[in-house]
Amino acid sequence: MLIAERKETMKFSNLLLEILTVSVFVLSSMTMNAEDTNNKDKNHNPSDSITHKAWTVSGPLGKITPVEEKDNLDELHIVNVADKKTISSQDHASLGSPFLSLIYADRIKKSDFLMLTPYEAHYLSPNEIIHHNTKKPLSRFSYVGGGPSNRSDRCVSGLFSVSANKKFNIGAYGDWVNSYGAFESSSTRNCNAGFFSTYLGDKTDITASISFSKYENYENGGVADENMVTHPEENGNIAEENIPVNLPSNTFNKFKGFNMYLNYKRHLGRLKLPFVESSAQDSAFADSVAPQQNELTMSKISPVSLIFDAKFESDWKRYTERAISESHNKFYGIDDSLKFRNLNNKQTLDSVLFRQFKTNIGLNLNEEFNKVLKFGFAPYFALDLKSYHYSEGKMLYRGMDEVFLKENKINTEDFTDSMGYMGRPLWAENQPLKMGIGANLSKHSGSHFFYDLLGEYYFLDEKKTGSSFLLSGTVSTLFDIKGKMPVSVDGHFSLENKCPDFFEDFYYSNYLSWSNDFDNKREMKISGDIKLPKIGLSGSVGYVNLGNYIYFDKYGLPNQSKDAQNIFYVKVREDLKLWWLRWNNEICYQATSDDYVLPLPSFSWYSNFYIQTPSIFKKSLTMQIGVDCRYYSKYYAQGYMPATGMFCSQHDKEYGGYPLLNAYASAQLKILKMFIVWNHLNREMGDNRNYIASPGYPMSTSFIRMGISVEFDD
After folding, report:
1. CA distance linking residue 138 with residue 605, whole number of Å
2. Hey, what's the torsion of the CAs at 409, 413, 415, 420, to 10 degrees?
3. 418: which DSSP letter?
């Protein structure tokens, strides 16, 4: 009964997801063709058409943070959205495939669902959704295509946002990726879509969103022989799509996600003009200080706000092998390893379901009314209910009576496994509950010194230890060197003690199963950032200490390290400008205490050298022509376990030390942007073919992509 209900739910969510995506594109097209009567006004100011506010909502009580969206050609040629978030990474060379940042500081946890980890770079969490408040309807549409006809990539995305008045806005977004990949059984199909809405009134603020995600990637287990990639001349120069892979049959992972978010603020007391200490907006720090002034919420502020913040998330993941072959048994080592076993030797259908309801209820005492101590204070109560549905693993023996088999609809022919057991695993449920209290202490007004401190303590956690807590804080300052060089400095600190994830403790599947009782994980982070925007220089330095760190070993099984893991890193970015020439560089150095438990490349570098023309042809056309490069030093790159989708440690071979070059040209003609990029151009140059990124998985092959993007806000 449970399985039937889940199938119906999945069918409905698939239909709703497809309808939603199409709707976004239709709305965008309708907006593009619409005429605004205001354009007929002789006094119409063109700048009004591009003026709109954008922001995200984050934190335990839905803090509004203004966002400045880029309206230039920078990063337009970078098609893989995940590559825009980090300078160094490993994936399966297909757009939307499982992805891992090689910069530890760039690994950001977006969900409490462990099985979402390989897709988090593509996943859009509620606090990443950009909300808009536009004077006129805003619509965007983009299309990207490339690659050979039989292994092509296609990406489509759209956005529509409209404001009924100054207070109420509604919008929708969607993006779709279909990549066949250069190698056999490496295609991906990804989709994100959703609705968002805001109401910012005098007494009430409401922010809401509904999001859908669907990721599907075929699993080939990597190429069977890396020499066919690194030394093609010794193996007949076989084309990429014909290179043998470990899992050539129909094997794939599928993820479906759904989340709803609601933040409600009720402002109590008489509204007053906000208290502003100084006119810092007129100083050289205007760009840095502006986000601190919460002008998006209202022009008047109340002394106290009652806040309700809630999120519901439902995720489902399945690993499927429609038919188990000898290649599957060989890949998982069924014959010669006790770490793996084959409970069903005909097919694999490993599914897990995760649901979470999380809410925070609190009060916000606005700092604008605290003229003496000048800080804001927000205490709250936190409730977190999770639900894990999983295969329990109970097996039925031969000799069960026919009545039992009939009642449970068990087909003895289809469900007799290689170990002589019969039947399908039963579904079970685990529902851990967390309850606690928290508080946020902050100062965002003023001109030179700001801070934001957060503390949470859970007197009831998943394992009922009562020891889960979080302490974090950010301290910022602004100053000017001799009145000519503005500088901003930020310091960050966090200390967290939390229970291991349920699936780190327990998991059951056709190949892998484990039952653990891990201790609570501890994480301490300390970092500092400095920015000198006038000369385009920024940098950060950080230290991370991980206690009871849980990692996946070479067999794909979770283990808890007895020794603390330490990571030290330094990141520097410099953007140089000289006439039409631009040269952007970002370098990261990392040191890890154990390169098996937590492997990281010591050195990573991203460089982008290009020519940017000024606006030409009556200031309507801008162009960029350049080459970018990604490089990281050799290290013990993590392997990948298709059965769980987890990245696993290995210490047999180092990977890296290979530059990946892309040549591109992009242009903007008023509302139209376009680009063409030659990916991995150096693959066709020289004899260096050592572009294997991780065990069995090469980098992307060499091909050309083209794309266009159109934005209308009139």
Report:
1. 36
2. 130
3. T
Other C-beta atoms within 10 Å of 43: how many? Answer: 4
Of the candidates 212, 207, 258, the one whose C-alpha atom is nearest the C-alpha of residue 59 is 207
Which residues have CB under 8 Å from 181's CB, separation 6+? 92, 93, 94, 97, 151, 187, 188, 218
Task: Tell me what the pLDDT averaged over the chain comes to.
Answer: 84
Q: How far out from the chain centre does Cα 240 lie?
A: 29
Other Cβ atoms less than 10 A from the Cβ of 70: the count is 8
Contacts of 588 (CB under 8 A, 6+ apart): 87, 88, 103, 569, 570, 571, 572, 603, 604, 605
End-to-end CA distance of the chain: 51
* Beta-ladder partners of 5: none
Give me the pLDDT at residue 685, please.
Answer: 79
Pick 140 or 39 by higher pLDDT: 140
Could you write out the three-class secondary structure of 344-396? CCCCEEEEEEEEEEEEEEEEEECHHHCCCCCCEEEEEEEEEEEEEEEECCCCE
Radius of gyration of the CA atoms of the chain, in A: 27
Closest CA to 192 of 128, 109, 250: 128
Of residues 596, 660, 640, the one with CA closest to residue 222: 640
Q: How far apart are CA 117 and CA 111, in angstroms?
A: 8
What DSSP string describes 39-86? GG-TT--GGGGG-EEEEEEETTTTEEEE-----SSTTTT---GGGGS-
Q: Which residue has the tokens 């695993």?
A: 425
- 124, 213 contact by CB (below 8 A): yes
Going by pLDDT thresholds of 50, 70 and 90, the confidence category of residue 8 is: very low
Burial of 273 (0-12, 13-18, 19+ CB in 10 A): exposed
Q: Which residues 6+ apart lie within 8 Å of 608 measured at CB?
A: 582, 583, 584, 585, 626, 627, 628, 629
What pLDDT does 272 receive?
62
Distance from C-alpha of 56 to C-alpha of 78, rounded to nearest angstrom: 23
Instruction: Please list the residues that pair with 157 across neighbouring strands.
Output: 142, 175
Band of residue 408 on the pLDDT scale cut at 50, 70, 90: low
Phi/psi at 84 (nearest 5 deg)?
Answer: -80, -10
Q: Residue 3 corresponds to which amino acid?
A: I
Q: Which of 3-12, 140-149, 418-427 has the highest mean pLDDT?
A: 140-149
pLDDT tens digit sequence for 52-83: 689 999 999 999 888 887 778 889 999 998 99
Give the confidence band of 414 by pLDDT, cuts at 50, 70, 90: low
What CA dihedral angle connects 302, 298, 127 and 140, to 10 degrees?
170
Q: Which two tokens stand for residue 174?
A: 């969607």
Q: How many Cα atoms occupy the beta-carbon half-sphere of 305 within 13 Å? A: 31
334-351: pLDDT as tens digits: 765 556 777 777 888 899
Averaged pLDDT, 517-529: 97
Q: What is the pTM of this model?
A: 0.86
CB 56 within 8 A of CB 131: yes
Instruction: Using the structure block, give the residue that is written with the tokens 């000048």.
Output: 374
- Under 8 Å between Cβ of 508 and 425: yes
Residues 6+ apart with CB under 8 A from 47: none
Q: Note the Cα 627 to chain centre separation in Å.
A: 26
